[in-house]
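hey m, so remember when u said the tokens were messed up on ur end? i reran from scratch. heres the input so u can diff it against urs
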Amino acid sequence: MLHHSGPEGSESIARLLKENFYITELDLGQNKMKSPGAQALAEVLTDNNSIKTLNLSWNDFKDKDAAFLAEGIRANQTLTWLDLSHNGFAEEAGVVFGEL
């Protein structure tokens, strides 16, 4: 579990995860990743084939970030549990995630 890494830290975490195919559970809740983190994580989810459980709660993601995350989630073949609670998502994000 890692907390309060912010947008800059989330980009570093994403770089590390791109090279790691052994982690199956990841708790990145409460990191205030914002848009840069959403974009970086979307890339990780697209390429990663080991993460099954991912907590992204409390990261200040907004509706505009939903498209990035949805793209990564859609491409991922192994993710079975995802927590996106307590972010700033509203109706637009609900539509994007609902299409998944």
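this time it looks ok to me. The chain has four helices and three strands. if urs says something different then somethings off w ur setup not the seq
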